Each structure stands twice: as C-alpha cells, then as structure tokens.
Amino acid sequence: MSENSFEQYKHLVQEQARSLLDVVQSVARGDLDVKVEALEGIPSLSELALGISAMLDGLRETLAEQERAQETQHRTTVLSALYQVGREITATLDLDATLQAIAEDTTRLVRADQSIILLVDAEEKRLSKAVGYGYPAEPMAGFTYQEVEDGISGWALREGTSTISENILTDPRNTGIALEMARKEGESKSIAVAPLLIEGQAIGTLTAVRSTDQTVFSEDDLILVTMFADRAAIAIENARLFEQTRARARREQALREIAIRMRGFTDPDAIARAAARELGAALGRPAFVRLGSADELVSGQGGD
Q1: 114 Cβ contact list (under 8 Å, min separation 6)
Q2: Which end of the chain, C or N, has fewer beta carbons within 10 A?
Q3: What single string gives the DSSP state of each residue in 100-148?
Q4: Claim: this prediction has a pTM higher than 0.85
Q5: Angstrom distance (rounded) from CA 298 to CA 8
Q6: How far is Cα 269 from Cα 15, in angstroms, rounded to an integer?
Q7: pLDDT per residue as tens digits for the range 93-145
Q8: 187 φ, ψ to 5°?
Q9: Strands 201-211 and 114-121, how do they pair?
Q10: Is residue 77 part of a domain?
Q11: Same domain, residue pair 101 and 43
Q12: 209 lies in which domain range?
C-alpha cells in the first residue's frame, strides 16, 4: 500500500470511528432516535455499525414494551379506581366521604398536586360545598361563590363542558377575584376542569391542579377528570334522591301517627283543630284552620 493510499485509509478509519463514537455519545445522553449510518470500506467498522444499530433497535423495543406495560398498569389502576368509586357510590350514602374519595383518586390518577370538588347553587348564587385533596383546611374554607364564578370553574359551569388551562395566571377566562387569589399565591398552575352535570344542569365542578413546573394536563387527563366528575354527579344525585325518599317516608309516618291519634275525636271542630295542630308540628311551622259556613268563610267571618 502506497503512503498516499495509507493516509486515505487512515482518514476513512478515523472518520467512521468518529461517526460511531458520536452515535454512542448520543445514546449515552439518552437520544435513542439517533441514526446509525451504514459504513463501507472498513469491514470491522461496518460490522460494528450494524451491531450498534441492532443494539439500538433492541433497546428501543425494550423501552417501548416498558412504556406499554406502564400504560397498561396505569389503565388497570384507573379502571380499578373507577370500579371502587362506583362501589362507594352504591354502598354508602355518606356524600362527603364519597366526594373526598373521588378528589383523592383524581389527584393520584392524573398525577396532580391537588383536586377540588365545588358544588354551587346558581339560583341563590351560593357555594354549597367544597371538598378537596391536597389543600390545607383554611384555604378550603375560604372559597366563595364569586371566586368560582370569576374563574375557569365558572366558565366550565356556564358552558357545561370540560377544559384545560395551561396557566391560570395568563388564561383570559380567569378573571376578578379568582385571578387575584391566583396572583396572591404567586405560583402559576395548570388545571383540568370538568362540570358536574345532572340532567344537563351543571351543579358544580371537579378541578385537578398541577404546578406549571410539571407537564401540562393532556386530553387523556381531561377524559379521566371528566369521568370522575360524572361519578361525583351520580353520588350527589343518589344522595338527593335518598333524602327525598327519607323525607317522604317521614311525612307519611307523621300522617299515619296523626290519623291514629285523631281516631278518638268525634267533634268535627275538634278534629279540624287537632289536625291543624298535628300538621303544624309535623311540618315544623304554624298551621291553622278556619271554621264556618261557606258564606262565613267567603266573607272572612269564620272562626279559628
């Protein structure tokens, strides 16, 4: 081999060796998308390049399998949590405990820092309940209806749809008191909000909160938050129906007891007065009966 040919061969070896070294360094930095160029002219380096390429393919496949396994595990965890919440909804009538469990599960499964369920009475413009996870007790007690109305939760209530805010300090939907409170906290946060809907009517929201130092919520995260919001709405509706059933049973029991006590009365006036007294006691408010003929009742001359 001539000296010129040797220098060319040496240069080719150095160039290909540097190329492979660059690949190895990129992999060491975590870049698994680096491309291994096919090398020609130096058989040993060509084989090494093929070996590195095969190694990278295997590593990518291993990582992909791990990601699939993690995703499968996460989905299993989500389904398990949804099943557990479903059991809690049907097994207990303790609304606060059920909502607390939903807030906790939401925080854990979407990897949030905090979650909060806010229930509102839109007609009376009143915040009726605030149940959260990851919040100190004092801030929880300090929530107001106006803060909800001014914030992104208020937007979700009005629109009846779920949404993601990448940064509540810069989101134009966050206004008034809600924006003031966010600025006081001094930390930018991203949130995923879903309305609690009963027969199409929004009665509250479920919100998951993350610091913007973390990854912004994804659409998959929002789907999960929405699913948990639906469970919360079911729990609230179940509690409302149970309370209605219990109140109706109390009224029916009270009427039966009144009927039993009045069996001994024979005087119509006494029966009427006793009925008014007993009904007033059962209803928890004054009741009266006006006695007299039809003409007297029309003229307002009947007696009590």
Answers
A1: 107, 132, 133, 134, 135, 208, 209
A2: N
A3: HHHHHHHHHHTT-SEEEEEEEETTTTEEEEEEEES--HHHHHT--HHHH
A4: no
A5: 123
A6: 115
A7: 677 888 888 888 889 888 899 999 999 988 888 998 888 898 876 656 678 89
A8: -125, 125
A9: antiparallel
A10: no
A11: no
A12: 92-236
